[in-house]
Amino acid sequence: MADIQMFGFHPAGxxxxxxxxxxxxxxxxxxxxxxPPDFCGGSFVVAALFAIHPLNVECxxxxxxxxxxxxxLFLFLALFAxxxxxxxxxxxxxxxxxxxxxFGLLAKPMIVTLLCASLADYWPLNRLxxxxxxxxxxxxxxxxASLALEKIPLLLLSGASAYITVIAQSxxxxxxxxxxxxxxxxxxxxxxxxxxxxxxxxxxMHLAIFYPHPEDRLGLWKPLLATTFLLAFTGWCFVQRxxxxxxxxxxxxxxxxxxxxxxxxxxxxxxGRPLRLHALVGNFHSGVWWIADHSKRLLIVxxxxxxxxxxxxxxxxxxxxxxxxxxxxxxxxxxxxxxxxSANFIAENNLGEAYMQIGxxxxxxxxxxxxxxxxxxxxxxx
Length: 382
What we know:
Elements: H1 2-7, H2 11-33, H3 40-52, H4 57-61, H5 66-87, H6 91-107, H7 114-117, H8 134-150, H9 152-171, H10 183-202, E1 211-212, H11 221-239, E2 262-264, H12 276-298, H13 302-325, H14 330-340, H15 345-357, H16 375-378
Antiparallel strand pairs: 1-2
């Protein structure tokens, strides 16, 4: 509302403001990741990868996704406040944690995964022992119970927000009915989408604003492959449990309720939709820390790692710059979605509306060709 009052529908005001929010969120990411403080270089790489990753373009380029930026910003502020509370527990500090969490819920309910992010108790805060022996297992669950009681106020806030969200989405008919998308269809797609998200994190190519749901055409091998990978990766993390940061790999939501027809979006590939901006931090954090630990054993030169990090940043930065070009106007955005996906009825419909808006419906028969006059199209807001 403030954006509209100040800038109207012109992106010259809203886009720089969104960039400022993204810069602030990335800075908070760096501060939260700078634990332990002797690994600031790795924290900088994590925050930089988060800031320039192509999956995050949509949250900045599309003003309607301001909620995701605000939600992520308050998530990091809540985590920072939680670390402050752990150093010296007190009612005032806990209230600050709850307040940041409540602000995040007001921005977007996806911040409910802060309870998963409370794995910070395990690492880097080390409030829980490693369950590597029978004695430590008993101590682990004893301390875990006390820490779980500590999270009850946050859990109540999450429960209230989740209830309100489900009611609101149901009344808006934004949650797919069971008879339209049965659980036997949604579970395989959620598993496959989870694996796709991990792939897009490392190789973010062919991103689109909207992916149609495959329904029952997904095939059996895809969910089987995803399940095998996830089980194997979970087992590997358990074996490597002394490296605590692997337990904090990512926070996800299953997406099994099935909101709308979307299979996945460029900022969150998955009908079983991983948490958008937040999950990337877990991926990068674990990867950077694991490489740093094993580079010491392999005697890898520090300058080599710095060069590799610079190459990755340049790679993602180039892809991000290219991804921003697709958000130039309606025609470019939805034409790109049509070209990178198949049977995308939403993208085709919106592309047709873009042609109709400039009075050139005859171009609907050839979506690979740009309209003669794109000036009128670019003046319209996305």
